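Posting this for the archive.
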Amino acid sequence: MKAAVIREIGHLEIEDLDVPEPGVGEVQVKLVATGICHTDLSLLQGKLPGPLPFVPGHEGAGVVTKVGQGVDSLKVGDHVVCSIVLSCGACFQCRSGAPAICEVGTQVALAGTMMDSTRRLSKGDEVLNSLFAQSSFAEYSVIPASSAVKVREDAPLDVIAVLGCGGSTGFGAVTRRAKVPVGASVAVIGAGGVGLSVIMAARAAGATPIIAVDVLDDKLAIAREFGATHVLNAREEGAVARIQEITRRGADFAFDTVGTGETLKQAFDATRSGGEVVAIGISDVTSLVTVDIFSLLQQKRLTGTWAGSISPQVDIPQMVDLFMEGRLPLDRLVGARYDLDDLGSAFEAMEAGKFGRAVVCFQ
């Protein structure tokens, strides 16, 4: 099968690998499309740790072609979205209703292995590492059955692939983690794919105003189309002061989808006393943020979310239904489609802000 392989930082090649076989509790999926996420770019650039060599990709959607031993929740022919959430179902977090922060899955995500600490990817005698136990920039993927979410067959897989990570992360951050109520003011730092998903979800929740902040006017124009009532170019005006002016006291909720110390501090400063700041993105694992204790004493809350804090088997089918009903415009989020051979060009276009989200299509 064709697959994207990163063997050294900053270098990506399309290679022929063996088709992976599912193990116990796993399924093999023939990919139809995979969303292009900034996390993959950060791994390529070395800003996030990835064990070399590895196959990137973690927003896959496709059709089940094989089921491993012990899998009875899926069958060959099922359409699935491959979720970034890796859950064992047995640890403290899973039993507490927080599968997104599974104690096993969070250790596996960037370790290069499947949930049982073994590997499925190979090229002859060479064993390669996976990403999020998925590695969906390939024609076939093997993933844990718990991460393969069965969806209705009339939903276009090249659109709903974005629910594997970015789309569901933004939506879940609003609806699951922050629980934004009707009429709340929302500030969104970063108008990329996840930021646009936050804006969509905030609009669906009835939030107002919705303020998008970015440094690229093209991305801000897209943010307005997705429901932002105000857009601010942080290079041209003081975003914190403008958010406080627009909301009269500071945002009720602020979401940082960029993930630097500077942008998270910006979100924190733009939020009112008693408001909530949600960290979503991470650009560099070494990034730090410093906040003043007095603001915390004023009951300002700083929290974060992994994968939108969703329960994928419950939330993703509901998001698909919302999209099919015309209430969640995921199709507008997908601004470009690429062949796998053009993945390098897609990363360059994403970094230049030419689209909110794009997908690699395999057929």
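The radius of gyration is 20 Å. The chain has two domains: 2-166+309-361, 170-306.
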